[in-house]
User: What shape does this take?
Amino acid sequence: MVSTLIRVTGDWSLAEDCTAEAFEAALATWPRDGIPTNPGAWLTTVAKNRALDRLRRAATLARKLEEMTAVTELEHLDPELSDFPDDRLRLIFTCCHPALSLEARVALTLRTVGGLTAAQIARAFLVSEATIAQRIVRAKRKITEAAIPYRVPEAHLLAERLSGVLAVLYLAFNEGYSVVAHTSIADEAIRVTRALAQLMPGEPEVTGLLALMLLQHSRRRARLDAEAVPLTLEEQDRSLWDAAAIAEAGELLNGAGRRAEPGAGRGAEPGPYRLQAAIAAVHATADSAAATDWQTIVALYDRLLTVTPSPIVELNRAVAVGMASGPQVGLAALERVAASGALDGYYLLPAARADLFRRLGDYSKAAAFYRVALAGAPTQPERDFFARRLDEVGG
Amino acid sequence: MKYMMFVATDPEAEPYDPAQDNIQEWVAEMVARGVNLHGDRLRPIEDATLVRVRNGEVLVTDGPFTESKEWIAGYDMLEAADLDEAIEIASKHPMARFGRIELRPVWPFEE
Assistant: This one.
């Protein structure tokens, strides 16, 4: 409803205010009069009438052509057509426009597409509600003043803009995922990604991202111990993994694969989200860490590196090599990654080294590297994790 | 929608290559499309003059200008449908490669 009002009126605040008023009216009258047969159409009608009132007033005052055009279009809007999928898609692309700062894109998407409150977003991002509210106000102002278009980008821009949208959704998901108490953000990111997958069924990277989120989220009940210290995949109780989510992700990946057969254009070669989801799926379907098909994971990392070369992916690949071919081979792979210098000062590099030395039984070297990782870990749960490991190797 | 396009230098951009400079083509295309209202190069900072009025007195000086490696080398006034079209126009300008371009929406006084 919000998305359609924005398209017709071009006024974000008006659209949001009128939608909010429609919900308030529902809260006031439905308990008394009962829920209408078509609640969506009821809400749209109320919001539409509120918008018409305001626009007619503004149009009479200013005699402005745009407002008169919007009034005419609103008058012909059929509330029975409860769902306006094209408008939702427009809204997602506009909220994720690259001319907005990344943090504004995330906040605006969660607020306007996802419907979370500024307070909910603020809690997840560990900033004040006023900061989030201001980010959203500034972003909306820029959309209006700089004339950021309200539409799905043209074909030649679509691939680039879509990958921008996916990056925003994945960032929102990860923020929600990293703060355990606020999984509502992760849930919301999944919900919006699911809606996007329905709106753009021919895009394998959208279903790939949805599968990746579902697979990561499937471990939400298993990934921490009773003291909220993170557990490795090896330590997690796999019976706590969400089997339904894993199954859904598997179906999404198979479906995305079928649609991406040769001839399907740019979907032919799997993109980074599908490859990451494929890696997560190998983990998710293994009975234990030891029974995991590590060779396949290494092969998938190799393909991921050709699509998106990155030192972090190389680090993860080296860890997988350590599992597939033994810690000695893993350490050799890790040394090659470290030699590039790109990961100097990154705490997960000493953490990976420490882990491989621990597997080799070289506890003094393991302890030395765990100490480096502990000093660089950014969050308390991770510091607890490394402190525990350090303890285990007698540091 | 009008945008002022500031064309600026940028030490981090790729070095200027006269053979790759297709500014004539850019101007021809944008004028033909009716999206470039007017534009020009600007003389370097050495030729600039600073004017201030302080305590009612006009002060004219040869600087000081903010020391910057990114100075404005030209401008174009664009008339574009929206920001996406303005971005497309800016991205085709040779100085998007050899420098950087800033798009500022025009803020008319009657609003």
Summary: The mean pLDDT of chain B is 93. Chain B touches chain A through ten residues (CB under 8 Å). Chain B is about 25% helix and 35% strand.
